[in-house]
Amino acid sequence: MKPENMFLGTAAKKDGKISIIPIPYEGTCSAQRGTVEGPDAIIKASHNLELYDHELDKNISTAGVRTINKIEPEPTPEEMIDEIEAAVAKELLEGRFPVILGGCHTVTIGAVKAVHKRFKNLSVLALDAHADLKDEYDNTKLSHGCVMARIRELCPAMQVGVRSLDESEAGIIKTKKYPVYFEKDILSHEDTAISGLSENVYITIDLDVFDPSIMASTGTPEPGGLLWHEVLGFLKKVCEKKNIVGFDIVELSPNKNNPSCDFLAAKLTYKIMGYCTASI
Ligand SMILES: [Mn+2]
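A: This is the predicted complex of the input protein with manganese (II) ion.
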């Protein structure tokens, strides 16, 4: 693979312990197309990252970051999810730490299936503006609007940053007492939220959890989101206290006129790798 197609470009390593898995899939995205371009945009933006991180006072890339071939779209979401599960399972089996770049949020279902089979005592931490708890959406149970409903069938999950949901989803959260921290609540409840997670944690970040003032390149932006330091501060604490087994960054829908969002997504990916390095 050419350096231009790899996360961190020439700083990527063939035998890295961290595996970037690009998944340009948007088969179930309803509102706006464009997430198919997400992984390439993040990879391209990553070539501009400084490898040294001043907060952590280290060069995060020395942990070893490699990029595997992108997972090409399959005709149905079911086949796509199977394909993703197999790819993530392969990386886990080979002792690598999976980092998935989406693509639409549906890709998370395949990744969680793989980590769930590999790790006991797993929970999923989801940062997302949307509840994604619909049982079915756009005539499929695998829509990005159903992601958390499907994940909760596999393992416990905690949702953070939610600020957009319908009455049925609000009802489900109340009756099932799901741990959901709305965007206005999370900052004053970080420690309670973290203590509610199990030992092993998979993190999924739908970029629309951020405020559209700093992250406008998503299919369904929602005002009132979290800011850069709020998200990073929370994630740093999570990574210090829990064993992170993998993560994904999804729903980037790049806008060529505003590449700053691509840079945010690339830096976020790199920062979380840095926070996780202790458990890798
Ligand atoms: Mn969302």
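The CA atoms of residues 106 and 116 lie 16 Å apart. The radius of gyration is 17 Å.
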